[in-house]
Amino acid sequence: AADKINLIPQDFFAELCEQIIQHLNHKIPGVNTAELCQRIQTSGIEINVGDLAKIVNIISFLFSTAASNNLSTEELITTLGNAVTALPKHAVQVIRHVWNEQGKSISVSEDARSMATVGQFVDIKWKLGVAMSSDTCRSLKYPYVTVTLKVADPSGQITDKSFEMTVPQFKNFYRQFKEMAAVLETV
User: Fold this and answer.
1) What CATH code is carried by the domain that includes residue 162?
2) pLDDT class for 127, splitting at 50, 70, 90?
3) Across-strand partners of 123?
4) Which residues have a Cβ under 8 Å from the Cβ of 1 and sit 6 or more positions away?
5) What's the angle, vertex CA 28, arms to CA 24 and CA 29, rounded to 5?
6) Mean pLDDT of 41-48
7) For residue range 149-171, what is the model confidence (pLDDT) as tens digits?
8) CA distance 76 to 167
9) 120-131, strands of its sheet edge to edge
10) Contact, 158 vs 122, CB < 8 A?
11) Which residues pair with 128 in a beta bridge?
12) Where are the beta strands (DSSP E) in the chain?
């Protein structure tokens, strides 16, 4: 991962570290690696979303471990120097700066730890479509609903999950959401 971190310009790496800190502080649901990866690629850097997601996981683990052990900035940098010799100098500088500025704000409560094992719902989008025809059937006229859920996994990486439903399936889905809303009203 160190060679991939070396590819990321310092400003993008700093933004990534800031987003990870915000995620660990529960201020944002996660790091949108797809959007950040696209911006990095637009700047001319060859990196894929999978590699960026691994970097997010590593830095997130680094910050959360440092927070749970109450490491000072110097202790963190010393530990990094002893453990990871191949980490690029600009990355160490960014980690030092971000940890120095915001590291103490990370709260590692038991509630946060237990909640971290489950993903977090971020957004939902849906659209209605009609399949007009296919190569095997000339006239389908089949309506369907496409639903896209945006979910932040425990490491903070935001992913989209999409699925299609028939209109009756969507009506059942909608009915179940209404039932959940009614139950939540009583709480």
Assistant:
1) 3.10.450
2) very high
3) 150
4) 51, 54, 55, 58
5) 85
6) 89
7) 888 876 667 888 899 998 899 99
8) 54
9) 120-131, 142-152, 158-166
10) yes
11) 145
12) 120-131, 142-152, 158-166
How many structural domains comprise the chain?
Answer: 2
Token pair for residue 180?
Answer: 């959940």
Domain co-membership, 124 together with 67? no
Residues 144-152: contacts with CB under 8 Å, at least 24 apart? 145/169, 145/170, 147/173, 148/124, 149/121, 149/123, 149/124, 150/121, 150/122, 150/123, 150/124, 150/125, 151/119, 151/120, 151/121, 151/122, 152/23, 152/29, 152/30, 152/119, 152/120, 152/122
In angstroms, the CA 114 to CA 47 distance is: 32
pTM of the model: 0.62
* Residue in this structure with the two tokens 């683990």, named with its chain if needed: 61
